[in-house]
Amino acid sequence: MSALLHKDETLVRMGGDEFLVLSTRRTEADSLSVLAERIVHKINLPIPIDGAEDRTVGASVGIAVLPNGPDLEYELLRSADEAMYQAKKTGRNRSCLHSSLTVSLPQGAEARV
Fold first, then answer.
1. 71 φ, ψ to 5°?
2. Known active-site residue 17
3. Could you give all domains of the chain from N- to C-terminal order, each with its CATH number?
């Protein structure tokens, strides 16, 4: 996944199979959706296993974008989690934008995938 990110974006393993991407560069829904779809595609590629059939895994991605404000970290995590569970609920192997997102945010907004 890190190969899909810009140098100033951060990839964090939250635990188990949950990862977090922090970006102050991509704050528009379109660019975040493109990144999320690339992540889903990359994770869905077959994994070759010696002496066995290739395996695949899936991914559901939640996207949240919020302006700077109180409890930003908590709100980003909560909103992205809600969006991820919505993606799982609607069929998995997809991404979902948090429902309160606008198409574009002002300079200084932060995004989390």
1. 60, 30
2. yes
3. 2-112 (3.30.70.270)
The answer to whether the Cα torsion of 11, 70, 63, 110 is positive or negative is negative
Kindly list the averaged pLDDT for each block of 10 residues, start to end, along the chain of length 113.
Answer: 93 92 88 94 94 93 88 91 93 84 49 57
Q: What is the pLDDT of residue 53?
A: 94
Tell the residue number behind the tokens 């198409």, with chain if given.
103
Question: pLDDT at position 68, please?
Answer: 82
Of 17, 30, 71, 81, catalytic: 17
Residue 21 parent element (H or E)? strand 18-23
Whether the CB-CB separation of 66 and 82 falls below 8 Å is answered with no
Terminal-to-terminal C-alpha distance of the chain: 12
How far apart are alpha carbons 8 and 91 in whole angstroms?
A: 32
Residue 49 tokens read as 């296993």
Q: What are phi and psi of 105, to 5 degrees?
A: -115, 155
Q: Taking CA 62 as the corner, what is the angle to CA 60 and CA 68, rounded to the nearest 5 degrees?
A: 160
Token pair listed for 11? 């990839």
